[in-house]
């Protein structure tokens, strides 16, 4: 696995914007480790593995097809952990601010937690 936690977190954010499910799955397989867990306040429970994240993002894209997740600057990285601030736009209008914290393992991100604030 090439890259650090910050690079993989940025790669994961690109998956949120990918409309094509197969391309989105490819991005997730590059960024996430096999034992990956994702959680945020809008998820009913933590999602496990790249397939769980793919299912969550499919639902996200179906519910918010006009949404774009935009990184706000570069991630901050400390050893195997990174944080990145992002903005979610809907139809070009700021909708929410988000913070994502990710931990890196040998085969990719192992855990990402998203925190959401209203814009």
From TrEMBL:
InterPro entries: NTF2-like_dom_sf (IPR032710)
Protein name as it appears in the record: SnoaL-like domain-containing protein
Species of origin: Jannaschia aquimarina
């Amino acid at each position: 696995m090439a890259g650090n936690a910050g690079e993989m977190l940025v790669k994961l954010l690109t998956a949120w914007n990918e409309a094509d499910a197969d391309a989105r799955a490819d991005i997730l397989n590059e960024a996430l480790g096999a034992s990956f867990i994702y959680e945020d306040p809008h998820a009913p429970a933590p999602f496990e593995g790249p397939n769980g994240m793919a299912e969550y993002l499919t639902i996200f894209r179906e519910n918010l097809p006009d949404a774009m997740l935009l990184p706000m600057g570069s991630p901050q990285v400390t050893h195997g952990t990174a944080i990145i601030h992002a903005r979610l736009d809907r139809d070009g209008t700021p909708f929410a601010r988000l913070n994502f914290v990710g931990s890196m393992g040998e085969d990719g991100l192992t855990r990402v937690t998203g925190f959401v604030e209203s814009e």
